[in-house]
Amino acid sequence: MAYRIEYLPIVKLHFRTLTARQRSIVLDSVDEQLTYEPIVITRNRFLMRPDSIAAWELRIGELRVYYDIEEDPEQVVYICAVGVKEGNLVRIGTEVVSP
């Protein structure tokens, strides 16, 4: 069964700092990789440490998508943040965080 993808309102601000190409890559990759098996750990999709931005991270080259999953009452993937990896830091919107 497919998961519904839902972007939190703050993610609109994160998208504004990305190029059109980066936004397109994120949207396509999220649909492709998180619609059916978002809880399967892969080389580019894994659980984060506690106290992180979200429970899961999806790596798409230098782009990072942070998301949480809800199983009940329906299967939903919540996209919490989108950022760009720059060295050892990630820029999410206008904020720089240490992942």
Helix/strand/pairing class, anyone?
A: alpha+beta
The tally of helices reads: 2
What is the residue-averaged pLDDT?
94
- The overall strand count is 7
Shape summary: globular
Radius of gyration: 13 Å
Helical content class: 10-25%
Separation of termini?
Answer: 31 Å
Q: What portion of residues belong to β-strands?
A: 35-45%
Secondary-structure element string: EHHEEEEEE
Largest sheet: 7 strands, mixed
Low-confidence stretches: none
Question: How would you describe what is shown here?
Answer:
With 99 residues, this protein is an alpha+beta fold. It contains 2 helices and 7 strands; from the N terminus they run E-H-H-E-E-E-E-E-E. Strands 1, 2, 3, 4, 5, 6 and 7 form a 7-stranded mixed sheet that branches.
What keyword list fits this structure?
single chain; 99 residues; alpha+beta; seven-stranded mixed β-sheet; 2 helices; globular
